[in-house]
Every structure is written in C-alpha cells, then in structure tokens.
Write a structure and sequence with these properties.
five-stranded antiparallel β-sheet, 1019 residues, single chain, alpha+beta
C-alpha cells in the first residue's frame, strides 16, 4: 500500500475520532462517521445496525451514501429487513464479534440482499462490530460498487474505530446513568453535613491505608469509632455472609432507640427495615455485595418508639481473596432532609393547584371548542376530498361523460300520464313538437374533458352555450327513442348516434343514458356517456364494400372452382385454387388427399365430417376453415360444395368453390374486439361513476375485463400498513380455473422487490411466457409457477398520487401476449378503480365521523339514538326488556387538572376499551359527553342481568390505569332504566337513567342505582 493511501486512511481515522470527541449524542455522531469513512476510503454506502429490544433482531438505524449515486432500492429494502443473530452480514458480524469481508456479495449465499445489491451495482461489502468490553452494541456495514479484495490493514483500522465507537456509546450511557443517579445530589447536601462528609472521606482513606496489617487495622477502627462518636453518625460492622452485626456505634440508641447488644441478634436489622422497603433493600445489598463493589443507598427503618427514620447507608466491602468477608459502613440520619423535601413538594403542589383552579375552566372550554372546530373541519375536508375525487373521476374519464338535469322533462311526462297518455311511442310519433319542448328543458350540468376533445373545443362554457349547433335531426330521433324508453320505466338506454364537431365533422358515437341511483323518480341527475366509434364505423363500411366487391368478383369470376368426379375419382382445380394454395397452375394432379393435407390439423376432422354428411344427405354445404401453406402461413378459406346424384340417388359428382377470406376474417375479428372494447369501457366507466355497490362493481368489472382479455383469472390486490402488506381482496375466475384468493393474504411486499419497484414506477408488467423469465427473477418465477401461471399482466392502481394496489390478469392454460387494445382497456380500468377507491375511503371516513366519537371510536349520540330505537322495537316484538345505563366518571376533572388533558384523553380511551370488554357483541357502548358513557343492553329477562353488567363495569374501572408511566385510579357512578318498566320511548329512557346516575353520584359514587319514580322529586 502506498504512503499516500495510508496517510488518507489515517486522516479518515483521525476525522472519525474527532467527530466522536466533539459529538454529544450517538444520533449526531454516527451519520458523520459513516460519511467520513466512505469518503476517505472511497466506499459507496455506509450503514449502522443496532439490536432492537422488542424484535430481538438487528434493524437499520442510520445510513449514508454518496450523493452522486442512486441506491434508493437497496436502502429501502434494508430498512424493511430485520436480521436475527447469525443471519445475513449484520447478523454474522454481531454473533461472531469479528469483522467480515465479502469480495463480491453476488457470490455470497449469506448476503440476503444480493439481488437488490446486484441490481444497483453494489459488490464489495465489509462488516465491523461495535464492541465495548464483552458487549456488542452494533454493526457497521460498508458497501462499494467495486469488487474489493480483503485488506488486513483496513480491517484493523476499522475494527479500531468500531471499538472507539463502542467506548463512546458506553461512555455516553454511563454519563447518562450517572447524571440520573446523582440528579439533585447537591440540593440534598446541606451545610451541616459537610463535616460529616469530610470525616467520612478521612475514614475511608484510613481504612484503605491500613488493610495490610491487623494491628494497623485495629488502630484505624478505634480512630474511626472515636471520630464517629464525635460527629454523631452510626458506624457499624457486619459479617458479609450472614449480615449479622459484629459492631454498632453508640449513636444507634439516640437515633433509632435500640441498644447496641440488640443489633447482634440474627436478622435484627432486616426485621426492623420498613416493610415497604425490606425486599428491595435486601436484594440490593445482596447483589452489590456479590459484585464486591462499594455502594450507598437510602431507605427507611422503624425506631423503637414506632417512628419512621430515613437513613443513608454507605457500605464498604472488605474482601478476603475474591470473596466478600466483612461489610463496614455508617448510617446517616436524613429524616429532617426528607421532611423538608416533602414539605416543599406539598407546598409546590398546593401552589400549582391554586394557579390551575383560576385557569382550568377557561382552558377546558377552549379545548372543547377546539375539538368541535377540529371535528367540523375534518368533516368539511373529508366532504371536499370526496367531491374532489368524484370530480377527478368524472373529469379524467377517457369516455365522454355528461351530467344532465331532466327533472322538467319528468314533470312534462308525468303531466302527460295524468292526462291519460299511456302509449308514449305512438304519442311522440304524432306529436314531435313535444320532443322539441322536452329537449329545450334539459339542463346540462357539466361535461368532462373527453367531451371537449370529442367536439374539438377547449372552452367548456362556450361549448355549453352553443350546444344546440351540435345536434341535428338524427340526434333528435335518438333522443325521441331515449325519451320513450324512460317514459316506459326503463332506467338505461343505449343506441348509436351521429354528432358533429365544432368544425362540422361527423362523429359516430355509442350513447348510453342511465338514471343515477336515487334519482329514478325525479330524473334530476342523468349520466350520459358517449364513446367515439367513428373508426369502427369506417371499418364496418370498408368491410361492407369489401364484401360487396368480393361477392361481385365471385359472381363474375367464380373464384377458385373445383370438381370431383365420384365415378372416376378424379379431381379438377381451377387456376385460382392453385393460386390460393400458392402453387403454380397445373404443377400437380390434385386429389382429395392433397386437399386434406392442406387443411389445418385442428380443422381436418371437421372438414371431413362435413363433406361426408353432405355426400350422405345429397345436400350442399358451406363452411369456413383454415389451411396451412407450404411456408407455414395459416390462411382462412370459405368453401362451398354441391352434390349431384343420379336417378338412383348415387353420388356422381361434387362441384364447389373455395375463396380466401383471411383479410375479411381479420377485419371482422378486429372489429368485434373493438366493439367489445368500447362496450366494456362504457360499462365499467358508467358503473364506477354511479358506484352504488363498491364490491359488486369491482367483481362485475373484473369479470368483464377478464372475459374480454380471455384471462383465466382477474384480481385486485390492495396494500395496507403503509404498503408493507398486500392482500388479494377481489378475484374473478374463468370456468374450470381454481380460485387462489384465500392463499394470497397477508403477503409482505418486501418479498417481491422487483414487482414493487415496477409498480412504484407506474410500469405495466407484461410477461407473455413465465417459463422464459430471466434468471435474476427466479423467486418471482417460482412463485408464479407454483400457482400454475403461464402468462401475466399487472397494472398499478393509484388513488390520487398514492399506490394502493394493482390489477392482475393471468392465464393458467396457455402462454401468450395480451393485445395492445386490451392493455389500454385494463390501464383505463386501473385508473378508474383508483379514483373509486379514493372516493370510497373518503365516504367511509365521512360516515364514520358522523356517527362515532373521534377520540374513542365509540358510537356518538347520533348512532346511539338509532340503536336505542332498534333495541326498543326489538324488545317490544320479542316481549323482553332493554336497559339503558348512563355512566359518569367520578372526579375525572381532577385527572385533567392534575395530569393534563393529554393524560385525560388517554384515560377516556382506556375506559372505553374496558367497557367494551364487559358487554356482549350485540350491545352498544357509546360516548355521549366529556366523561359520560351510555350503554344499551338487549334481550334482558330480569333486572338482575343489568345489575351483573353494572358490577362488571365497577370492577373493571376500579383496577388502576397505567398511562405514560403514571398510575391513575378512577371510579364511576351508574344509573339504569328499563324498557318497558320505566318508559316506552327512547328519550325518556335516557333521561331516567341519567336521573338514577346522579343519585349514585350524590350517595357515595362508585356504585349503581335503578330508576325509581320518586327520584324526580328527590333529584
């Protein structure tokens, strides 16, 4: 290695050490260290992995890469993976506590991210453990675009950095622990204890300096005892194994009231520790004595006269070899200090309470107002979003869409019906002026962008003002037919029509008119879709002309005639027949076998059977079938034959013609596909605009698209948990194809990086033959082949700008590509479906917010009212009882005042969860006020049933709540009323349960009461 290279590495190490020295937190230091090492060593990407305490696996904590490279796919895959110990490069380094070098990750089986790394050009890899003492704290991983050969010097340098980082982490942890352990220590040290602290330090030095000799130790102990007697602390000595005191200072009598001889009894000290401190003190002393470490702690003891004395005990462990032998220390009375701390705390709490009482009501009122404003804004935003999504679906549809108000037309029709008109078809034939009158009352509410493109105009307002210019007599004839259909009770009308653009150009359209759900009685909202079929009409006209020309040519020239003499078994072909079979005329003697050899193998039996049936019946035949030319080209021919028989009925001759109709068939097939495509687009577009049943609409649309594209399966996958999981939510299968929807649930998207990368890029995934997928996608190939898929088409589904899932179409019988027209249809369907999903989510949110409490998710007053009405009707029908229970939390205002509204909100949510666990699935728990809940119980036989539930509520809420490290205790007061015992209407039931609740709160709280008729006066 060159001197300059070594110098650069040393500079990099120095820079990393400087970062550690200047940093205050790990979060601040790690990204800078990764950047410094990568830049100084010319590596592409650096990562830092730490152990996750919850999953017990390594997760990516920090990452840095060169700004000039794009490794987003690799970094995203890394953030979704959790490595167990020993698994992958981070797991191997963590388990072995040794660095690992990989020349090329593409050839390493233990590198789980090899496929993603290879895709983004990453090869060399290096893992370095971060160690402090015997503990592994994390792993550094560095990757390079180049294949890197192992470098022992570099391993040594980076291992050193890993050790320095480990020491930095342990040092920061120790500093934080030390700061927490000694927080407030200076406040507790008072002026009167300084002499004691100095004496304690002198005593420790004296004991430590005289351990070498027994005589010196005794002298030190004597000085220690005398000093202790002067400074009024309790020196002591005890056996480290039995904790039996061998010495206790005389001050123990003055401080605790026990004579020195009492301390020599077994377990005396343990038995006189305060009961609440006894267990942890014993465990604490045992642990630190076992470690042979000096320690100190604070605890309470009971004096001889029953007082509670606070002591600080400072303990020195004397070892004999490696085993604790003697414990020495002294106890300091800190009762006065503790009493002052408690008085200060109580004074501070009292002051906070007095200040809080003055502002509490205003804060609470302001919070309630803010909640109401926020809820109203959320509903308004959701409504606006839903409308915007609908408008987006309407505006961006590739089909021309019109939103029409025909309510005045409906009024006209109803007026005619009242006057006795029943046959509207005949009436409109005799009164065309009525049609014009109705057309004049139609109000066009809106048209979409596709309509403007169809009519070659850009200004929507100008287009609507000049709309009458685009309608001629033929379009009015179509409107007459639509008017008749609607008058006869139909909700949908379809027809072909002709419109004209702004420039006067004719356009042929397929028109579909449908009444929007809920507007069948008013016609106030009618949806009209127009699909441009001009190209199809041109193809039909071309086909018609072609057929006319072919028919004329066949009539004049008798194209491709042939003859078979049955008696001589001789066959004659005209020159045209030879040309159809791409043979030079007269080059071979034709036979029946020669002809059959040209017939496509799949059609051969059909042709032979048709000819045989014609010969047996003596009747002519006309069929279409395929032939295979010598160069392998497949053509389609129309064959016509007539049978001639003698007087005895024996076949003597067959005459016929053969005509190449391949081009005509192609045109017919293309025309049929286009018509099917247009019809399917119109149906799907109209269906999703109306969207009366979301799931049924998706199933119908999948079936339409699947049949049109001749797919075996058509399905929708939707993502959840921020795109981490995908589920097959809807599926259509062709006849005979096995459904797979149950086997395709809860799939982690991280398993399919290639699929997700293409979907996020908005790409259409088209795999005509799964068996020919490249080797770098073996996992995807094996997954598809396991389901028997031979070809696949996948399209991303976006709701607004968010990827929410994908549409899939596959074949399990044959491989082959999808037509471009089919891909266009499915792409349009994916766009429409994404807008519909966004719209459905918005509407679901609006509905939920209208009937549920935003904090707890419980039903609110609106939903409670509906459910209570249902419960009363049900109880009346089944001759049973229903109960209403009103619960009000006791002293909830105190929780808000003392701990804050945030803790109060957490408490309300926790209370809601406990209440739901106490009732049956069919019962209702609702939040009807700030700290008030209302419960509906169905199908009760006896009032004791409600009492049982009330006791469950009381028991459940008496248990402490643990919220953000605090323990909160709450109780509730409950009032109960019954249908039909107390009232037979919902409003009275709630009112009387409320009266009973106030009686419970007035009496003793934390109880329940039934409603009695005398409560009104009492309350």
């Amino acid at each position: 290695m060159t001197f300059s290279r070594r110098f650069e590495r040393c500079c990099g190490v120095h820079a990393a050490m400087r970062i550690l020295a200047e940093a205050t937190t790990l979060h601040e230091a790690i990204p800078k260290i990764l950047q410094t090492i990568c830049e100084s060593l010319d590596w592409t990407l650096g990562e830092f992995w730490i152990m996750d305490g919850k999953t017990k696996g390594l997760r990516l904590a920090e990452a840095w890469h060169k700004p000039s490279v794009n490794v987003s796919g690799f970094e995203e895959a890394s953030r979704q993976i959790v490595f167990s110990q020993g698994s992958g490069l981070p797991g191997s380094v963590y388990a072995s506590r040794k660095p690992v070098w990989i020349n090329d990750v593409a050839n390493d089986e233990n590198f789980h991210r090899a496929a993603v790394a290879a895709k983004e050009g990453l090869h060399g890899a290096l893992g370095i453990p971060v160690i402090a003492g015997n503990e592994t704290l994390g792993v550094f991983v560095f990757l390079s675009h180049a294949i890197q050969e192992a470098d022992d010097d570099l391993l040594l340098i980076l291992t050193s950095i890993g050790g320095q980082v480990g020491q930095f982490i342990k040092r920061r942890q120790a500093e934080e622990s030390l700061q927490q352990a000694h927080a407030g220590l200076e406040l507790r040290v008072m002026e009167r204890t300084r002499a004691l602290a100095q004496a304690n330090e002198a005593l420790r030095k004296e004991i430590t300096g005289h351990r070498k000799a027994e005589e010196a130790l005794r002298e030190s102990e004597e000085r220690f005892r005398k000093l202790a007697e002067k400074v009024r602390l309790i020196p002591w000595e005890a056996d480290a194994r039995t904790w039996k005191f061998t010495y206790i200072g005389p001050q123990a009598v003055g401080i605790l009231g026990y004579p020195p001889e009492a301390w020599h009894g077994a377990d005396f000290w343990v038995e006189h520790i305060h009961p609440e401190d006894r267990k942890w003190v014993v465990d604490y002393c045992a642990e630190y004595s076992k470690r042979q470490e000096n320690y100190e702690f604070e605890y309470r003891m009971l004096s001889a006269d029953g007082r509670v004395i606070w002591l600080r005990d400072i303990v020195h462990v004397v070892r004999e070899g490696k085993v604790p032998h003697v414990l020495r220390g002294f106890m300091i009375d800190i009762t006065g200090q503790k009493r002052i701390e408690e008085e200060l705390k109580a004074l501070n709490e009292s002051l906070e309470k007095r200040v809080g009482e003055r502002t509490r009501e205003l804060v609470q009122a302001n919070n309630e107002l803010q909640v109401k404003i926020a809820e109203r804004k959320m509903i308004e935003d959701a409504l606006y979003t839903s409308e915007a999504r609908y408008r987006g679906l309407f505006e961006n549809s590739p089909v021309s869409l019109w939103e029409v108000d025909s309510s005045e037309v409906k009024t006209c029709i109803d007026s005619l019906r009242k006057s006795g008109i029943t046959d509207f078809r005949t009436y409109f034939e005799n009164h065309p002026e009525t049609i014009h009158k109705c057309a004049a009352t139609v109000r066009i509410i809106d048209v979409n962008n596709a309509t403007l493109r169809m009519y070659q105009t850009e200004n929507k307002e100008r287009f609507l003002r000049s709309l009458s210019r685009f309608f001629d007599r033929e379009l009015f004839d179509v409107y007459k037919k639509a008017l008749i259909a609607l008058s006869e009770g139909q909700t949908m009308f379809e027809a072909e029509a002709v419109t004209r653009t702004r420039a006067g150009q004719e356009n042929y359209v397929f028109l579909r008119l449908s009444l929007a759900p809920g507007f069948e009685q008013t016609w106030a909202r009618v949806l009209v879709s127009l699909i441009d079929i001009t190209e199809r009409k041109r193809m039909e006209e071309a086909l018609r002309k072609s057929e006319a020309s072919l028919a004329k040519a066949q009539q004049i020239a008798r194209l491709g005639n042939w003859e078979w003499d049955a008696r001589k078994n001789e066959v004659y072909w005209s020159d045209e027949v030879y040309r159809i079979f791409t043979l030079a005329p007269r080059t071979l003697a034709p036979t029946c076998e020669t002809f059959l050899n040209y017939v496509h193998p799949d059609d051969r039996e059909f042709v032979k059977k048709t000819i045989h049936n014609a010969l047996c019946a003596g009747k002519p035949y006309s069929i279409d079938h395929r032939i295979v030319l010598p160069d392998g080209t497949v053509r389609i021919v129309h064959e016509h034959g007539e049978v001639m028989v003698d007087n005895a009925g024996r076949v003597i001759r067959m005459n016929g013609t053969v005509q190449d109709i391949t081009e005509r068939k192609w045109i017919e097939d293309a025309l049929k596909r286009r018509i099917d495509l247009e019809m399917t687009i119109a149906g799907i577009s109209t269906r999703f605009v109306i969207l009366s049943d979301f799931n049924n609409t998706i199933y119908k649309s999948l079936a339409d698209a699947g049949r049109l594209s001749k797919a075996g399966r058509a399905y929708l996958f939707q993502f959840r948990e921020n795109g981490a999981i995908m589920d097959n939510t809807h599926e259509w299968c062709d006849e005979g194809v096995r459904p797979e929807i149950k086997n395709l649930q809860d799939l982690p998207t991280a398993l399919f990086p290639w699929l997700m990368e293409n979907l996020r890029a908005g790409n259409v995934i088209h795999i005509p033959d799964v068996s020919k997928m490249p080797p770098d996608r073996d996992f995807d190939k094996s997954f598809l082949e396991k389901q028997g898929i031979k070809s696949l088409l996948v399209l991303p589904v976006y709701a607004e700008a968010s990827l929410v899932g994908f549409l899939g179409f596959d074949n399990v019988t044959t491989a082959g590509p999808w037509h471009e027209e089919e891909i266009t249809l499915l792409r349009i369907m994916a766009e429409i479906l994404g807008s519909a999903i966004a719209r459905k989510r918005s509407e679901a949110l609006i509905t939920f917010m209208a009937y549920h409490d935003t904090l707890t998710g419980l039903p609110n007053r609106n939903l409670l009212k509906d459910r209570l009405q249902v419960a009363v009707v049900h109880a009346k029908r089944n001759k049973c009882m229903a109960a209403v229970m009103v619960l009000d939390l006791d002293n909830f205002k105190t929780v808000n005042d003392m701990m804050g509204h945030h803790v109060g909100d957490l408490l309300l949510k926790a209370v809601a969860e406990r209440l739901k666990r106490c009732v049956r699935e069919g019962d209702t728990v609702a939040r009807t006020g700030g700290d008030e809940f209302t419960v509906i119980l169905h199908d009760l036989v006896h009032v004791d049933d409600a009492a049982t539930v009330a006791r469950k509520f009381l028991d459940a809420l008496c248990q402490p709540f643990h919220l953000e490290g605090r323990e909160v205790n709450i109780t509730t007061s409950i009032g109960i009323s019954f249908y039909p015992l107390d009232a037979d209407d919902t409003e009275s039931l709630v009112k009387k349960a409320d009266i009973a609740m106030y009686l419970s709160k007035e009496k003793s709280k934390n109880t329940y009461h039934f409603y009695r008729s005398d409560m009104n006066t009492h309350v």
